[in-house]
Design a protein that fits this description.
Blueprint lengths: L5 E5 L12 H13 L4 E4 L11 H15 L5 E4 L5 H14 L3 E5 L8 H14 L4 E5 L1 H4 L5 H7 L5 E6 L4 H7 L8 E4 L5 H6 L4 E4 L6 H12 L3 H10 L1 H7 L6 H9 L16 H13 L5
Parallel strand pairs: 1-2, 1-8, 2-3, 3-4, 4-5, 5-6, 6-7, 7-8
Function: Catalyzes the condensation of (S)-aspartate-beta-semialdehyde [(S)-ASA] and pyruvate to 4-hydroxy-tetrahydrodipicolinate (HTPA).
InterPro entries: Aldolase_TIM, DapA, DapA-like, Schiff_base-form_aldolases_AS, Schiff_base-form_aldolases_CS
Pathway: Amino-acid biosynthesis; L-lysine biosynthesis via DAP pathway; (S)-tetrahydrodipicolinate from L-aspartate: step 3/4
Length: about 290
């Protein structure tokens, strides 16, 4: 897990019409991703709607995914919570299930000071048997993981990286000085993949990969193989698609896109709901221009 370079899909959670988790569809999506060169699979992240699911459902999705992937690619499981104790319990549970890594978020709503932020991650990394990835997304949590915190935690033997989703290239450049063979950075923004790779990121944890796994993989692998032009060309080619996937709060547009493409992944759980009709038409038009739907 510490050496992974590539595209990690932040996988959606499909639902049946009655709102229950569609495990048959999860298996179908896993096979779709692996057959199209995805380098890793993340479940129970922001895109996976884990905040609208019960702890029991989270556990079932994590266990099911680990069993169905069967070690073919790394599986990362979102274990984050604004309660450090809850995050710790999930971290221990998912590492025992066989997760290859955990995604741990900063403590939203509560917030904290510098030492509290360090301890929030450290106690989980100390006790989980698989490595942890920090998740910096201040637009959702209301608090950022400061550069000082990254400097400290990048040295922890069981913290292997950070998903950087602030959209702030200056911040990303500043924390890039702490990257090494044991601490990687992954872009959390699909519109910045090539930019983040240029300052040392190892790859992306991607929403786009739900619908374009091969292309997202190629964007990263081309850069690592020295073909920066092809990486940039792919980034720019799918920029309108990426923007459309974020015209409303994630994961509403990406699930709508998958349904437009015939993947039948179902709807949402409140407070997430169907897209505004104008935005849906915009999304459909962008997908049609790329030949992704009728």
């Amino acid at each position: 897990m510490k050496m992974i370079k590539g595209s990690i899909v932040a996988m959606i959670t499909p639902f049946h019409e009655d709102g229950s988790v569609n495990f048959e569809k999860i298996e179908e999506m896993i096979e779709f991703q692996i057959s199209h060169s995805t380098d890793g699979i993340l479940v129970l992240g922001t895109t996976g709607e884990s905040t609208t699911m019960t702890h029991e459902e989270d556990d079932q999705v994590a266990q099911f995914t680990i069993e169905k992937v069967r070690g073919r690619v790394p599986v990362i499981v979102g274990a984050g919570s604004n309660s450090t104790q809850t995050q710790l319990e999930k971290s221990i549970k998912y590492s025992k299930m066989g997760a290859d890594a955990l995604l741990l978020i900063s403590p939203y709503y509560n917030k904290t000071n510098t030492e509290g932020m360090i301890q929030h991650f450290k106690v989980c990394a100390d006790q989980a048997s698989c490595p942890s990835i920090l998740y910096n997304i201040p637009g959702r949590t209301g608090c950022a993981i400061s550069e000082d915190v990254v400097k400290v935690l990048s040295k922890h033997p069981n913290i292997c990286g950070i998903k950087e989703a602030s959209g702030n290239i200056s911040y990303a450049t500043n924390i890039a000085r702490y990257l090494n063979d044991d601490f990687a950075m992954y872009s959390g923004n699909d519109d910045m993949i090539t930019s983040m790779l240029s300052i040392g990121a190892s790859g992306v944890i991607s929403v786009l990969s739900n619908i374009l796994p091969q292309e997202t993989h190629d964007m990263v692998s081309s850069f690592h193989q020295g073909d920066v032009k092809r990486s940039l060309d792919l980034q720019l080619q799918y920029l309108d698609v990426i923007h459309a996937l974020f015209c409303e709060v994630n994961p509403i547009p990406v699930k709508a896109a998958m349904n437009l493409m015939g993947m039948q992944v179902g709807g949402y759980r409140l407070p997430l709901c169907e897209m505004d009709s104008k935005n849906l038409l915009k999304l459909q038009r962008v997908l049609q221009e790329q030949g992704l739907c009728e």
